[in-house]
Amino acid sequence: MNLLPRPVSYVDGGRLCEYRGWETVLVDGPPGGYRLISSDDGVLIEAHDAEGEMNALQTLRQLLGPQAFRAAGEKPSVIPACEVVDHPRFAWRGVMLDVARHFLPKREVLRYVELLSAHKLNVLHLHLTDDQGWRFECKRYPKLTEVGSWREDSRFGDRRSGGMTGRPHGGFYPQEDLREIVEYARARHITVVPEIDVPGHSQAAIAAYPELGVHGGGVWTDWGINERVLNTEESTVDFYRNVFDELMDVFPAEFIGLGGDEAPGHDGEIVRAIAKHLVRNGRRPYGWDEVLDSGPLPAGTVVASWRGVEGGVTALREGHDVVMCPEEFVYLDYRQSDSPGEPIPVGTVTTLEDVYAWEPVPAEVTGDEPGRLLGAQANIWTEHLDSARRVDYAAFPRLAAFAEVVWSPAEKDPGFVERLREHHLPRLDALGVEYRPLTGPHPWQLLPGVPGFPR
């Protein structure tokens, strides 16, 4: 229930009540669930847990109207008389934010934490390292940020065009900033899952410490798959064990991302080694679906199924827990229409309606598999999103549709787009989100002349 209540029970007597605050009591019920009653006597929230109370408060905020989403100004004082009974469909309702390709300052990450909370999303997956930049301060290996956190140039649009921006790009998060992000998210019942990618997507680390790689080279200035991957020396494994130790010290999350994707010709040895290291330290490895090709994985490994749903189905049958994030439905950097004016058109057309129509549970999943389908996440890759404004354009309002999918029952509401237009876009306006209008981009959101690679 993210845009307008579609609860188990909803009674509205057509009355408005004066809003004077709320009272919360804890009751039995599904995790994250709540019951909200608004009447002349005030607002009563019955919640299963603290996350359920937070979800109820976001519903209360929605009922108060768009003005309640502004940081300052006169606040609404009335609320409809109603009863809302609701709970999330999935436990993992996540967003992957790629801060490696284009760095987002801490203030923007905190803003996205707020936006996730407003949409009742509860996992922020931070993609912290890639060929194009290393964003995690590792105190034991300072050159990872001194050398690896910036690149001399960036591809402008798709690599086939040969264009470059002609300017450096970089940035990294000190550990204290990351601890702040974690705590800020924790207060909003959002888990921050960090990812350091191995053995591929590692050129920034190899640029800083060449002994880690099969080949040398600087921080990559291009997009796409880089065939330069980590070597399999024990010293390289030890190096990354030390890096992940610092990562685990900063991020208390149960889940720690280790990548495992798009590593041509690699046998997966380092993936298995790091996964075992994480398990020994009481954490659960979280990797892209290529980790299934790395050989036997330790119990507790979670698989993110991005190359369609097949990897996720296989993982469930092998006993692994799974998060669904197939590129054809929830890669929010993909173009939003087939119009040639769509700014930097990459990937397949993925419309708002496509995202909302998606069903996260594949038809071939029976529920009897030894693994569990934890939920789903939307992925925001930033090769072509070089600012917070561009991230907003790509993410919204499709992320609102995704939030509705992972919260609500499987049945689709034919009135979704109208609810979005009438009730939720005004909230995004109040929050200052520079979303893509339903009718197409504003003139200033266009990027004419920047070549993409539509599929």
UniProtKB/TrEMBL annotation:
Record organism: Lentzea fradiae
Beta-hexosaminidase bacterial type N-terminal domain boundaries: 30-87
Matches recorded under Pfam families: Glyco_hydro_20, Glyco_hydro_20b
This protein's name: beta-N-acetylhexosaminidase
Gene3D superfamilies referenced in this protein's UniProt entry, alphabetically: Chitobiase/beta-hexosaminidase domain 2-like, Glycosidases
InterPro entries: Beta_hexosaminidase_sua/sub, GH, Glyco_hydro_20_cat, Hex-like_dom2, HEX_bac_N
Keyword Hydrolase attached: yes
Reactions catalysed according to its record: Hydrolysis of terminal non-reducing N-acetyl-D-hexosamine residues in N-acetyl-beta-D-hexosaminides
Keywords, ordered alphabetically: Glycosidase, Hydrolase
EC number: 3.2.1.52
Family that this chain belongs to: Belongs to the glycosyl hydrolase 20 family.
